[in-house]
Amino acid sequence: DGSLTVTDRVEMKSPQTFGTALLTLGGWRKLEDGALMVWDVEEALRVEIDTGGLPYTVKAEEIREDAPGTPTRLGIELDQPVEKATVTLRIRPLAEPASAGGNLLRNGGFELGTWGWDLPRNGMGDLSTEQAATGTTSLKITDPDAKSGSNLYSARTPVGENTDARMGPPIRRS
Which long-range contacts (CB under 8 A, 24 or more apart) does 125-130 make? Predict the structure, then answer.
């Protein structure tokens, strides 16, 4: 649909370190092709990084402040000092992949990290590769207290009119 291109250009008299940054309140991961995926529960973006062929590193840093959320600074830092450089970020909506096995839940197999899910902040829920119903990843909830309990939320799931839908993950107790 829409897209945004951000370009940072720099020229210096002597070689200096250089980088740019992207801030997010959601999750992120590096994709196999080098692009970044940045998401919140409902939506996701693809960020393509063009450094003109110069090698770079992505460094994540949580920004801890007296604020309602905890932003993450994604530093895109060139590996070597430069006198001149251009870094371009192309940001666009990420097309949602087809769900495995007809699953109506967005990212129901957790193969794209926590996109489409709001995991509990109490440390009871985490992604695991120990076992999975499909793919390689699953949600693991460890609840050591019989009184506390845990919860999670998924993104809204569109269901057509006059449609019967049953949603629920395969659950294994251990």
Answer: 125/150, 125/152
Q: List the strands of the sheet with 27-30, edge to edge.
A: 4-16, 82-93, 44-50, 36-39, 27-30
Tokens encoding 49: 């990084």
Q: Are 142 and 124 in contact (CB under 8 A)?
A: yes
101: phi then psi, degrees, rounded to nearest 5: 60, 25
pLDDT tens profile 71-119: 899 999 999 999 999 999 999 998 765 555 556 677 777 777 777 777 7
Cα(34)–Cα(90) distance, integer angstroms: 13
166, 173, 140, 168: which is closest to 154 by C-alpha? Answer: 168
CB-side neighbour CA atoms (13 Å) of 93: 7
What is d(CA 133, CA 106) in angstroms, rounded to the nearest whole number?
Answer: 15
